[in-house]
Structures are given as C-alpha cells and as structure tokens.
Amino acid sequence: MFQDLDEKKKQLDEKRPLPAFTLKSLKEKLLLEWTFHSNAIEGNTLTLKETKVVLEGITVGGKTMREHLEVINHREAIQYVEEIVTKGEPLSEWQIKNIHRLVLKGIDDEYAGVYRDQQVFISGAEHTPPEPVLLKEKMEELVAWYEGEAQQLHPVERAAQLHVIFVGIHPFVDGNGRTSRLLLNLELMKSGYPPIIIKAEKRLAYYSALDKAHTTNEVHDFIEMVKSEVSETLDLYLSTVT
Fold first, then answer.
1. Which ranges of the sequence are coiled-coil (predicted)?
2. Residue ranges in the chain whose pLDDT is less than 70
C-alpha cells in the first residue's frame, strides 16, 4: 500500500544531507504554502503573496488583525513543531495544547490551549463531536492509541489516522483544523518525511473524506489523499537533488 512512498523516501534518504541552500529554500517554500493553504481552508482571505508579505513583517491594508495573526501564529506553531521533531519528544496532551495555544494566541486567549466547555458542531458535516464532559477521556484515549496500536501502522497511515481522530474529537472551540494539520505534519516529520500541503482548492474532497471517516469509520479516502500529498512533496524534494 505504501511501497511507492517507501521507495521515494529511500531515494531521498540516500541523498541526505541535502545541500544547505536547497534545504533552506524548500523549507521556506513549504512554510509559506502550508501557512497560506491551512489558513485559506478556514476562511482567511489573504492571498499567497499577501501571506508572504505578512510573514516578512509587513501589514496588508484592508485585511483584519485576526487574518494577520493567523499567519504569524501559524509560523510560530510550525517552528514549535520543528522543535518537537528535533528533540524527539513523544506526543502528549500538553504538547497538543501548546500547539493550539500558538494557533490562537492573541486571537482568543481565553480558549487558547484550553479544551472547550461547550458543545460545537462542524459546519457542513454529519458528524457531531463529543460533549465537553467527554473531552478529557477522549484525548487520553487518543494518546493511548498513539502510544500503542498506532505504532504498528505505517508512518503515513499513522499521521492520517491521528488527524482523523483528533478532528473527530474537536477538542477546542476554534482552531481545530489548523491544529490537526500541524499534528499530521508533525507525525510525518518525526518519521523523516517532509510536511505536506492540503490545498485550499481540495477543501471539499478533504472535508468529505473526513466526514466519511467519522460517520462510517472508513478512512481509506482520507489516507489516499494524504498519500497523494506525501508523494507530491517527496517528488518536489527529489526534483531538487537528482
């Protein structure tokens, strides 16, 4: 199921260490696109070029403070994810809350890094997340699954499943989508894969695959979507070093 990805990753690993400037430019490209698309999926109206400008410290006229903060916060969250990978820290609730705290910093400080205390619904989805009273238990189950059963899965499947389970729980009032994609890439990066970009134009297929996973327990479509994006990113890396 993952043979093609394993072969591409093997080819990339054989090329390591990548040239320093090449690696730097790839990381900058992916950071920009990851930030732009992850925010765009959630309704941020900044264009790719405007997102780049905001990352460079310039304010874009006609855009809200929240949209600017979403860009700056996302970059900080990516930097934190990279730090976790470098240190080899295991997944924990504390870590997940820290990622979320960075995502919502200055936007909604009351709920940044704090599990929701009210019921929420996912717009356009059939699945209804669990009641607030169940969140602590559900998040503990997520970490227990990760530490146990998940370790038997291929890294790409494990990353996809982590995203699916987290979004199904929807533990925060806001910022669950961005946090889930950060967790997805955190897991991929831990296993030596480059981060992937789920593009805003694929939003409908992305949401449909997630809702199918939550309502039928059929995760094939979502795993296939993640596999496709992993393959695309590996191709990008390989194209720069062959």
1. none
2. 242
Q: Is 116 annotated as a binding residue?
A: no
59 burial (CB, 10 Å; 0-12 / 13-18 / 19+) is exposed
Place of tokens 């602590």: 136
Give residue limits of the domains in the chain. Answer: 19-241
Is residue 170 part of the annotated active site? The answer reads: yes
- Among 37, 68, 163, 170, which one carries the catalytic annotation? 170
Q: What's the token pair of residue 178?
A: 């961005």
Matching CATH number, 19-241, of 3.30.420.270, 3.90.1070.20, 1.10.3290.10, 3.40.1000.20 = 1.10.3290.10
Q: Is the whole model's pTM more than 0.90, yes or no?
A: yes
Residues 107 and 223: their CA atoms lie apart, in Å, by 32
Q: 88 among the known binding-site residues? A: no
Nearest to 51 by CA among 62, 35, 66: 35
The structure tokens 């599990």 sit at 115
**Sign of the C-alpha dihedral computed for residues 178, 166, 78 and 15 taken in this order:** negative
Count of other CB atoms within 10 angstroms of residue 83: 10
177 is in an annotated binding site: yes
Using one digit for the tens of pLDDT, what is the confidence trace for 42-67?
Answer: 999 999 999 999 999 999 999 999 99
